[in-house]
Every structure is written in structure tokens, then in C-alpha cells.
Amino acid sequence: MRTRILLSVCIIAFNLNAQENLIQYVNPMVGTQRMGHTYPGATVPFGMVQLSPETDSVQYDLGKSYNKNVYAYCAGYQYDDPTIVGFAHTHFSGTGHSDLGDFLIMPTEGKLQLNPGTANHPAGGYRSNYSHSHEKAEPAYYRVNLTDYNILAELTTSSRVGFHQYTFPQTDSANIILDLSSGIYNHTEKNVWTFLRVENDTLITGYRQTNGWARTRTVYFAMTFNKRIEKYGHHKKDQGPYKGFYRKFNESENFPEMAGQDIVAWFGFKTQDQEKIKIKFALSSVSTEGALQNLFDEIPHWNFEQTKKEGQAFWNRELERIKVETISPDDKKIFYTAMYHSFLSPIIYMDTDRQYRGLDQNTHVAKDFTNYTIFSLWDTYRALHPLFNLIQTKRNSDMVESMLAHYDQSVHPMLPVWSHYANENWCMIGYHSVSVIADAIVKGVYTKNMESALEACVNTASYAPYDGLGYYMDYGYVPEDKNSSSVSKTLEYAYDDWAIAQIAQRTGNSKLTNEFLKRSESFLELFDSKSGFMRPKLANGNFKKSFDPMDTHGQGYIEGNAWNYGLYVPHQPAKLIELMGGQSRFVQMLDSLFTMRLDDKYIEATEDITRDGIIGNYVHGNEPGHHIPYLYNWTDKAWKTQERVRMICKTMYADAPDGLCGNDDCGQMSAWYIFSALGFYPVCPGSLEYAVGSPSVIAATIKMENGKSLIIKTKNQSDKNVYVKKLLFNNKEIKNNKLNHNELAQGGELVFIMSPKHSRK
Q1: pTM for this structure?
Q2: How confident is the model at residue 15, as a pLDDT?
Q3: Which of 146, 284, 315, 661 could bridge across to 290 with cysteines, CB 3.0–4.6 Å?
């Protein structure tokens, strides 16, 4: 039995006056206009509640076909839209597919309308026009004027509770709409069931169960008002033939129990001019009781400004993990906005009493770790989790524990591939939990249960029914005639196997070390020396005859082509260079990649890639190529890495609503920028090695959780001085363009001496 004890707010309040106010450099409006936009709403770092406006309610399906317009609403918000339909409590940040958008709240005044209307005819529903000139977004705070109703909407949050504040005009018809039918990537069968109880004249509880990207997802809530409800009701959109004996009631008004597949509830009030209706809305994956306890524990008061101040202090503390000086104010805004994006997910996924819903749909208790969810691992293993291993070590250790808990609850058994809200959605390829786990173990971040972690990784890599993995084990590669995207899968599996070997080596298991090191060389099976590319091979051992290295579809690749994805051998770049004819020819290929043109026909059918994120044929707007600019470091032309990286930082990121060149994908795009702006990058997570680039900051202080600080300094820094003339770590010259994580983690001083000219070789 849970005890409902009123506790102080769990978010620690920090004295902003004693610190630099870094949140002033964050722009939550930065995202992508045409793709999976990040949302501009209110949240705290890694918060379960991510409260944000929705600017339209676009269905995933049009009849029985896919609606391409829905892709623009992966995060619910589009900057160019003129109307807002409401404020929902759960969101993904910049993903290429979507779900969530739970519990849409919309304040209205006047005639009660219970459908959202359309962008072309907003007056036909409850949506409202708004203007960006009367919209403001900050970390942990969002504000907008809903012009059709003359209502000021303000939002802030704690980790598990959304706090709404709506300032109304004087009216006898103030309405708060709670649309339980609304969601992101909604389709005709998305809602399985919704349920709501009016517990008393200020408290509402309920849940929403959906079948979407996560096919069995239940979210509970507790919602409380700061004033007594005058009247309430609901509209049930679904009209099934069976109503049982509830037909003896008039359920539509003042009936305290509402249930159905698609429900829109409303609550009526009378307000004085400028009166504020406040709502606290708590979430839980376990129960309405858990949601209510989260509400009591985190925000036991009605002081909106206090919650906002505490949330912003929380953000300020997290942003202070890296303090930077930059060449321009815009650069500083881009840097801290990237840090903001990097700390939006994964999210805390447990109640304040540590209970959470597991993958087996049972209730579990996270006894000695914080449970997290939203693991976009095909993206985030590349730079986001390595960034956490530098500046968020406790959280990343807990994220590894969360992955291992997922494995324990899996019937397959497998570690997460792309998981959220107690579900595995199997999105994208590879089994990149093993990369995250290996990187954390190798860097000493995760030290608890390494033998168990190794077992989980090995079993994951041995699960034959998964996505061509059985063929991979049988043939030594994935045959294209047996399983599509075979080259991409083989390359990703090979890298993951190398990561498993690193764990086996550190646990003293030589048998598994050798086995997975051998598997990690599977990429050799697919290199075609005649074409010079990684090429799809058939089960008979022959290469697929028709092959276009510029194309993706039908060529053995996914979200990339042979020019980009074919360079994905992060664990053996020297071997890749050897295969491609040596350093000179490899440099020529990289140069061509950045200067040739990728024709529109190769990207027009791919939602995840647009012209905005492309430089030549190099696609920075998608993750598989993020390591490519750093590959010059394995040749005698390392200066070209410095040139490319600085150019990408300058052209692919901006302090603007379209400031990202592609999907942020839960922070990966932003984590790339953070590392690159600091001057180094983890080309191969699971190793201790960083590749040197070209820092764009003037100076930085990285505060690590072991109490040490890494001080980064530059000399002769400017927009033109992009080349590293000399690099010193603790007064010792670094000559191989590589840095060691363990050395950096012990703190010290890293000095880049910059120059406008490179030492041409």
C-alpha cells in the first residue's frame, strides 16, 4: 500500500545568482521545420513529463494508406503552423518515427467545442490562432497567447508533473478540455481504451492505453485543479453497438465515470478577469495511485513561479557541466541548445517510490538504480551515450542497468533495440545496447554486473530470429536475397560484435573475446575490390549483379548509400583504408564524397534525408556518416578532418527554428556538435580513443562527476584559424591526433594552438 505523505519538492532549488545563468543561451525553438522537429515546451532534464504545444492533429492514416504529412509532426509542433490545438504531456525529441502526445489539454472560452477543427477552419473546433511574437520558450517554461480566446497559457514541470497556468478573461464559460483521443501518429485503432474518474470537485484520475509504435502502452494520470469544477462532461467518439446497462444514465454530463475508446472530456468554470486556472497533471506507468503520489511528492503546492524557478535551476546545474567561451554569442547559443537537446532523453521511467512498468507489463521496483526509457539506440550509441560517459556518468550507469532490466524481462531474450514505455518497437538495425554497455564498461562508468552484462550481450547477438541475425551467423554476412538492407546490417553487426569482444576481454573470457573478434571481421565478406565499395552479396557467395553505389533502395542499405554507409567500419578504420587502396586513394574518396553531388532522385523517397543536411554526397542530417569527417585522422591528411568538422559546425547548426539539418534523434545530432565544438569525437564507442578535430570554442571547462575538471584552451582561435598547429595535454605534445578517455577523465589542461594554415603533406 502506498502512503500518501506530503513531501518537499524533489527537484533541488539552486541559487541562480551564485551561478552564470546558462539557460539564457538555450533556444528550445531550434529544430527542423520539415522533419521530426524537437518540441519547444516545458520539461526538466530527462523528465518523464515533456509538456509542449501541438500545432495540428494529423492522422497517421488516410483511409488505409499512410499520410505523408504526418511525418512533419513527429514531435507535434511545427513552427510554420498558425494554430495550436492544445498542450500534451509526452513527446519524442526529433525522432524519425513517433508515438506519445498523451493527454492533450486545451483551455477555451465561450461556446464549448469538443473537436480540434482544422487548420483551414480553426473556428470549427477548439484550436486557437497564435503568434510567435506572443510566444516564449525557455528551459522548463513555455508561454503563448491563445488569441481566439484571449487566454494566456503558461507551462512548467517537475520530473513527473506538468504544471499549467491559464489566465482567463471574465467569463461564465471558461472550459478546460482534456482530449484523451488525441495523440501523435494517431490512427483509427491507436486508442485501445481510455478511462477517467471525477474523484471530487478538484481531482480527476484515469489512464490511456494505446496501440502504436509501442503496441501495448498504458499511461496513468492524476489531474487536479486549483478551484472547484462547476460542471463537467464528455463526448464519446466511438459508437460501439454494446453499451451494457450504462444506458440508464446520461453519461454526457456530470457523470463521474467516463470510459471508451476515444473520449474528449471537459470541465467548466466561472472566472474573474485575469483569474488563473491552474492544473497539476502527474503521470505514472504503474497506477493512478502512483500518479497521485508523484504529484504530492514533487509539487505539493500551487506556486507556479516556484516550480518554474526550481526547474530552471535544475537546468542551469546540468548545463554547467560544461562551461564554454565562444567566438560569437550565436555559437554559445548553439552549444547550450545542443546540451539542452542532449538532456531531453532518455527519460526517467519510474514513480517516486521507484515502481515502474516493465517490458513484461508487470510492476517492478528499481531498487538500486533509476530506471530510464526512450532508447533510440541506432542513433544515440554513436555520440550521446559516449557524451554521458564523460559528463553524466551516474545517469549512464543507470541507463545500462535499465537496459539489463529490459533484458531480464524480455522473452526473446534480447537487450533493447529501440524501446520506450515498457515496449520494444524493434526500429532500425543492429543491437546497439551492446555498444552502450561496452563503452560504459571500458571507460569504468559501469562496474556492477559485468559478467551478467556480457551474458546479456552474447545472448542478444545470438538470437537467430532477429532481423537476419541467423543468416549472419550461418554465412558470416547477411545475404541480400535472404534479408534486406544486408550490407548495413552486416556492418552494424560486425561493429557490435567488436564491442562485445571488448567486454569479454575485460572480464577475462578469452574464448568469447576471440569468437566475437572473429565475427567483427564480417565486413571483409562484403568488400568488392573491383568496385571499391561494400556491396550486397547473395547466399550463393556472389555479389548482387545490379548495383548503384549512389542509391539506397535495393542496394543493401538503409538510410544511406555505399558512399556513406560503406565507410562504416569504426572498429577497424586502418583495415578499411587498406581495402580501399591505401591512404592516398582513401583521401581522394573522402574528398569526392564531400564535393560530388547527390541527385535528388536518390533522396526524394527517403523521409529521413533532405537537401538541408547534405554536403556533396556526405549526409550529416542522418547518423550513419557522423564519424566520416574524422576518418582523415587515419591518413597523413588529418588537417582535412579539422577543415571538414569546422565547416560542418558552421553550416549544419544554427540558432534558428530550422537550426538542425536533420532529425536530432533523441540528442545524437546535438551530441555530435558538442564533441566537435570541444575538439574531439568518439569514432569508435567501446574504445578509449577520441579522434581530434578542430575546436570551435575559445575555451571550455568540463566538470566531471569524479570531481576532476578538464580545461580546454585555444590559442589564436578565430573563424579562419581552423587548423590545429599543435596540441598539448598537460604540457605534453599529442602528435597522433588521438586522445585517451581515461587520461582526460583524470582532468588537466588540453591546449589547441590554432592556425589559418595547415601543414600540407
Answers
A1: 0.96
A2: 39
A3: 284
Burial 229-260 (b: 16+ CB within 10 A, else e): beebbbbbbeeeeeeeeeeeeebeeeeeebeb
Among 282, 232, 224, residue whose Cα is nearest residue 257:
232
CATH code: domain 354-755 is: 3.30.2080.10
Residues spanned by CATH 2.70.98.10 within the chain?
16-319
Angle between helices 384-391 and 393-409 in degrees, nearest 10: 130
pLDDT tens readout for residues 641-679: 999 999 999 999 999 999 999 999 999 999 999 999 999
CATH number of the domain at 16-319, please? 2.70.98.10
- Reported as a single tens digit per residue, the pLDDT across 91-125 is 999 999 999 999 999 999 999 999 999 988 999 99
pLDDT tens per residue, range 194-237: 999 999 999 999 999 999 999 999 999 999 999 999 999 999 98
Residues of each domain in the chain carrying CATH 3.30.2080.10: 354-755
Compute the Cα dihedral for 187, 189, 192, 193 and give only its sign. positive
In which region does residue 500 sit, left (phi positive, over 0), alpha (psi from -120 to 50) or beta (all else)?
alpha
Q: Is the dihedral of CA 259, 263, 269, 275 positive or negative?
A: positive
Rounded average pLDDT over 167-195? 97
β-pair type (203-210, 191-198)? antiparallel
Degrees, nearest 5: CA angle 193-198-200 = 160
Residues 6 or more apart whose Cβ sits within 8 Å of residue 567: 576, 593, 625, 627, 628, 631
Q: Which residues of 713-725 are buried (b: 16+ CB within 10 A; e: fewer)?
A: bbeebeeebbbbb
